[in-house]
């Protein structure tokens, strides 16, 4: 799937893209306790989208990496589409 094909509320999203930017992690309180979250901007030749990175995912990924999200889902937060790995998804860093 290409980023331009990702729609709001999409499920079972599998996409390969390059990480162009990662925000500083923030500590947030969730129903499961305190967690760290960061926003990564990922892009392919068709567009870009924000990928939410949680806890250990933040340490897996760095700017310039090519990643694959398998079985992710999309939600909208503050009017912006965001891709999430979620409980049933996977995040892989591709070897160059």
Which features does this protein show?
OB fold (Dihydrolipoamide Acetyltransferase, E2P); 5% helix; five-stranded mixed beta barrel
Please characterize this protein's 3D structure:
By secondary structure, the protein is mainly β. The protein has a single domain (3-94), classed as OB fold (Dihydrolipoamide Acetyltransferase, E2P). It has one helix at residues 56-60, and strands at 13-22, 26-30, 33-44, 47-54, 66-77, 80-84, 90-94.
Order of helices and strands: EEEEHEEE
* Helix content bin: under 10%
- Uncertain runs: none
What is the level 1 CATH name? Mainly Beta
**What gap, in angstroms, lies between the N and C termini?**
20 Å
Count of folded domains: 1
Derived from helix and strand composition plus strand pairing, the structural class reads mainly beta
Instruction: Count the beta strands.
Output: 7
What is the name of the CATH architecture? Beta Barrel
- Trace the largest sheet across and list its strands: 1-3-4-6-5
- At CATH level 3, the topology is OB fold (Dihydrolipoamide Acetyltransferase, E2P)
Shape: globular
Q: CATH homologous superfamily?
A: Nucleic acid-binding proteins
Mean pLDDT: 95
- Strand percentage lies at over 45%
Q: Please state the CA-atom Rg, rounded to the nearest Å.
A: 12 Å
Separate helix tally: 1
Sheet with the most strands?
Answer: 5 strands, mixed, barrel
